[in-house]
Amino acid sequence: MTVIDVKNAPKKAIRDTYGEVLVELGKIDPDMVVLDADLSESTRTHKFHLAYPERFFNAGIAEQNMIGIAAGFAYTGRTVYVSSFAIFLSGRAWEIIRQQIAYNKLNVKLVASHGGVSVGQDGASHQMNEDISLMRSLPNMNVIVPADSIEMEKVMKKVHSIKEPFYIRMSREKFPVIMPSDYEFEVGKGFILKEGSDVSVIACGVMVSIALQTAYELEEEGISVEVINMASIKPIDRELIIQTANKTGAVVTSEEHSIIGGLSSAVAEVLSEEGCNAILVRHGVEDRFALSGPALEVMEQLGLSVEGLKSKIKQALGKKCQK
Amino acid sequence: MTDFEKLQQIAKELRKEIITMVYNAQSGHPGGSLSAIDILTVLYFGGILRYDPKNPDWEDRDRFILSKGHASPALYSVLAHAGYFPKDELLTYRKTKGFAPDGYSRLQGHPAWQHNKHGAPGVEASTGSLGQGLSIAIGQALSLKLWGKDSRVYVMLGDGEVQEGMVWEAAMFAGHHKIDNLCAILDNNNLQIDGDVRDIVNIHPIKKKFEAFGWNVIEIDGHNYKQIYDAFIQAKETKGKPTIIVAHTIKGKGVSFMENNFKWHGVAPSKEEYEKALIELS
Fold it and tell me: Measured between CA atoms, how close is B263 to chain A, in angstroms?
């Protein structure tokens, strides 16, 4: 497999790609509408607003109403994109998302920016570490967490024509672009970025590039790490999880999200239901609130870093040996 | 000129069906269904709402959303009477078995959208969790306008329901955007589950509140057919503003022992009470 130079890879914020692709989609789909709640510059929906002002609606600081309006548009047969920060979109408006979008399987794409702690300086009030958990539990809801801007583009172009609800989670920061350009995203499919035999890291979002960097560094210590990008958290790639768990016997999940209810739980469900003979260690935001600070410093503080992941991987290897 | 007497006869029939449905299910909300039914009768059978029961997806139809979804017996009785589905199906209300493709009921406790797996034809949105219908109606109204259609969107709210903050987010938005193909109806029956709206958290003066949010407000007696009809016509003619018809109604209207008694919000009648109600409605 090609070695990806994570450290020197170009960096791009996923939300920038979101804004660009929205405009592209708006051109081919004249029935599509976009809604935002007073954060259109941050979420990048303002690009669509500039291109198609008549099909952009700003709900103001009123996320519940925004989701209700989005549902109304979708009931009439339109493809609807709704954006805000993850905390407000998935948290504030959760019950309306449940009653309208999930229950009726409406064609609404909930695209949340500022997911996780890499929001940084805004602090705990704006750091959303529970959204994957909240969204994953809703019937009919698909949950996707792209790893970089290449993947974001592929995700959007794939799901645009799938008339189902999607929750797509983006982080605020610029992170390395690491997915191969010929990569094709499939709902329900994971992707092996690096093969390995001692331990498997199943990651999503910005943790994918960190996982990859960690794997390369551990290679030098003689530890062979398999790295899987699990962008599609619901539905999840059960076969790939079983396959990698049976191969390495040790799985570490890595996510910029609480270790409760997110990717780790989705993987744990598969491992236990399938009776896989593998240790699981969860790498994510421990059951806590984080603090303000520059994004990378906040992540560092929480152990969402190469060093933090290394220690989780070693923990998993230790447990594997004890068995 | 609409034949109001004929409409009143229809409403009488529908009231019996409402009581029968709730009695049959031994569950449901008779009070708020009876307060709403005269308004719905005028809307559906008085030539106000544009619809085709043989083609529930007709793109040029008007829409009606029952935001106070617990009054589903009223909506279901109206839809059956309009011909969306046979009246026999009303007995599947709140039952497990029914006429959905998988054999389960389409008449859920609270209405499910017609393209929901267990929704009934003619239901334009899933409701039941209060406070959401007005926002949905705004989305539909904007969408139809954007497509250049002259269709209108009607939405009925309860007076207790407007205690929900989301209603005021929506009211502010609709006023700001001057959405004039939108007509809300407030079924102001003064009662909510725990008692009198004015005692629990007073919503009044409701007319002034909506006016302050940029709405055209029409106050009527929600059991007076001419007033209901005229209000709908006036709403249709009002341009540059959304309209809300504040309809003063009586909870449990038509069944003496249910009238103005909050205890009948969500209780089914006994056999004795059911028979008494049917006699009163005959």
Answer: 27
| Chain A residues within 8 A of B170 when measuring between CB atoms | 65, 68-69
Q: Which two tokens stand for residue B266?
A: 């969500």
pLDDT digits (tens, 9 = 90+) for A18-64: 999 999 999 999 999 999 999 999 999 999 999 999 999 999 999 99
In DSSP terms, B195 is beta-bridged to B192
The closest CB to that of B166, out of A60, A65, A104, belongs to A65
- How far apart are the C-alpha atoms of A275 and A315, rounded to whole Å? 21
Could you give the CA distance from residue A74 to residue A99 in angstroms, rounded to a whole number?
13
Distance separating the N- and C-terminal Cα atoms of chain B: 26
Strand stretches in A87-229, DSSP E: 108-113, 142-144, 166-169, 174-176, 191-194, 199-203, 225-229
Question: What does A84-108 look like in DSSP terms, one character per residue?
Answer: EEHIIIIIITHHHIIIIIITTT--E
Distance between CA atoms of B108 and B95, rounded to whole angstroms? 8
In sequence order, the β-bridge partners of residue A85 are A113
Q: Does A70 touch chain B (CB under 8 A)?
A: yes
Check pLDDT > 70 for residue B1: no
A179-231 pLDDT tens trace: 999 999 999 999 999 999 999 999 999 999 999 999 999 999 999 999 999 99
Q: Which of B227, B247, B281 is nearest to B46 (CA)?
A: B227
